[in-house]
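On to our target:
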Amino acid sequence: MKRLLFASFLLISPWSLALAQDSVQVRRLIEANNQRFLAAFNRGDAAVITSMYTRDALLLPPNSPIIGNHQGIRTYWQSLINAGVKAVELKTSTLEACGNTAYEVGQYTLTIPKAGGGTITDYGKYVVVWKREGRRWRLAVDSFGTNMPAVP
């Protein structure tokens, strides 16, 4: 019995280690994608941002209907860029991968210009479902919302 348990452990251990290493690698790749997203946003490049989404991606922004096509996704991000949104930060809290799918939960901070001058800092949360397409991880479902109270 002890031999059987030991043999099972030896078979399972490399598999567990491989999964842990894959999970670390996926996290690195997705965090690198987040940095690429932020760099493109700060450059005002909505085309690069849009290219990071799967063909059938869904964008679920706050106070808006679901956006389910690349042109709509590009228009949405370009409108935020044109509005002067700056200093976007993303902080991943949780990232779990299983095969070709991963989900990420995190928090964002961004600076929004106010009409008449000054800025507002918005704090919120996000959930992203990532899908691996070949060697690249792309956003498949992107949902986010503010933690700030609603303005009457």
